[in-house]
From TrEMBL:
Similarity comment text for this entry: Belongs to the NADH dehydrogenase family.
Enzyme Commission numbers on file: 1.6.5.-
Gene3D superfamilies the UniProt entry points to: 3.50.50.100
Cofactors (names): FAD
Protein keywords: FAD, Flavoprotein, Oxidoreductase, Signal
Signal peptide: 1-21
Pfam families for this protein: Pyr_redox_2
Protein name as annotated: NAD(P)/FAD-dependent oxidoreductase
Residues of the FAD/NAD(P)-binding domain: 4-313
EC class name: oxidoreductase
Length: 400
């Protein structure tokens, strides 16, 4: 009887965990290991591109790849982990509840936007956290051109000045001009709690974000928090108002709560604090990866961020280590010492940095070329070719 590695989630971490596990089983000429992926759909949804227009095109079908590598796909939504019985309860497309047993389990169920209890945001706000919500925002924006022109119609408020907020805010001026005409008066306002633009980044990167914002006409409200959102805009915590037909929340995510019944440490973002091999302490047959894992990337204190850059490598290590454990092999401690940032800045271009200190290497057109190469090619699934896919899934191979 085959032993099963069950992976929950088909995002970057889940997809690469499956391919990596299949790779090691293949290299060891072991056909007694089944690799199974449980997720709502057999596709990779390219979340880093959800700020773009035509968001429906930002998916990749995983069925050809999984078929080529003998990876089983199970359509369903995971609801509960029964660690005592080594099984996962899930809901099928028909809304039936059933379970599937596992020998090794990899949690790659990702993260979700956190609203922090802001009044009215769920009813009147938008976000680009998931494919369906990003599509809802796109449909809303496209529909605005049929409404009477007004300052509120032409204004978008972006709540949160982190990576996602910056990319969306700098993309919006050109999208709004396309919708309303090149001579229309549009406004994009970023509301940010911090005291400086891009406060999480290096001074060199902050300066570029500020320069791009100024050139594109993106306004920043610093030291500002959202009190409430309504149908006509937002009220800030200082009592001031911004009238806008579109308010988009981008401020913060938390790990999926799946596995909350496990007795294990989680960080402030809800991620499991894992061992170097990405196991959840106290559960030798359960691994956490991607946005579900609080993992050290090196020996100098850095930890993986909730980005596809880290999710890809975390997935490769988790899949390899789960398979290695079944095959009686030593696992590999996760390491990802190289860190880069490539931030899209709309019509201004993009900026590329290297290192945790974010040294700027490319800007404007050159940065944009690299950004497009990364988000449109490099982070997509490998071809449905065994040799190519397994070469890419090697956790010790350099990821560019």
């Amino acid at each position: 009887m085959k032993q099963r590695i069950l992976i929950i989630g088909s995002g970057f971490a889940g997809m690469w965990a499956a391919v990596s596990a299949a790779r090691l089983a293949y290299l060891q000429n072991n056909d007694a290991v089944e690799i199974a992926v449980l997720a709502p759909q057999p596709e990779l949804r390219v979340r880093p591109r959800f700020y773009e227009a035509n968001v429906a095109t930002t998916t990749a079908d995983l069925q050809p790849l999984f078929a080529e590598l003998d990876i089983r796909f199970i359509t369903g939504h995971a609801e509960r982990i029964d660690a005592a019985e080594n099984r996962v309860w899930y809901k099928t497309l028909q809304s039936d509840t059933t379970f599937i047993p596992y020998d090794k389990l990899i949690l790659a169920s990702g993260s979700h936007l956190h609203h922090f209890g802001i009044k009215g945001i769920a009813e009147y706000g938008f976000d680009i956290d998931q494919l369906d919500t990003a599509q809802r925002l796109e449909d809303h924006l496209n529909g605005l051109k049929n409404q009477p022109e007004s300052a509120a119609r032409n204004t978008v408020v972006v709540c949160g000045g982190g990576f996602t907020g910056i990319e969306l805010a700098t993309e919006l001026p050109s999208r709004l001009k396309t919708l309303f005409g090149p001579h229309s008066k549009t406004k994009v306002v970023v509301v940010e709690k911090g005291s400086v633009i891009g406060g999480r980044y290096s001074e060199a990167l902050r300066n570029i974000i500020r320069e791009a914002s100024d050139e594109l006409g993106v306004e920043w409200r610093l030291n500002a928090g959202i009190e409430m959102v309504d149908a006509e805009g937002v009220t800030l915590q200082d009592g001031s108002r911004i009238n806008a037909s579109t308010v988009v929340w981008t401020a913060g995510v938390k790990a999926n709560p799946l596995g909350e019944n496990l007795t294990a440490d989680r960080d402030a973002l809800g991620r499991f604090v894992v061992s170097p091999e990405l196991q959840i302490p106290g559960y030798s047959n359960i691994y956490a990866t991607g946005d579900m894992a609080h993992a050290k990337t090196d020996d100098v204190g850095n930890t993986a961020l909730m980005t596809c850059q880290h999710a890809i490598q975390l997935g490769k290590f988790a899949g390899h280590n789960a398979a290695a454990s079944l095959l009686g092999m030593e696992g590999l401690p996760y390491r990802q010492q190289n860190y880069v940032t490539c931030l899209d800045l709309g019509a201004w271009g993009a900026v590329y940095t290297e290192g945790w200190d974010q040294q700027v290497k490319l800007v404007r057109e050159e940065g944009k070329k690299l950004k497009i190469a990364i988000t449109n090619e490099l982070i997509y699934p490998p071809k449905a070719d065994r040799e190519i896919a397994f070469a890419a899934a090697d956790p010790l191979a350099k990821f560019v």
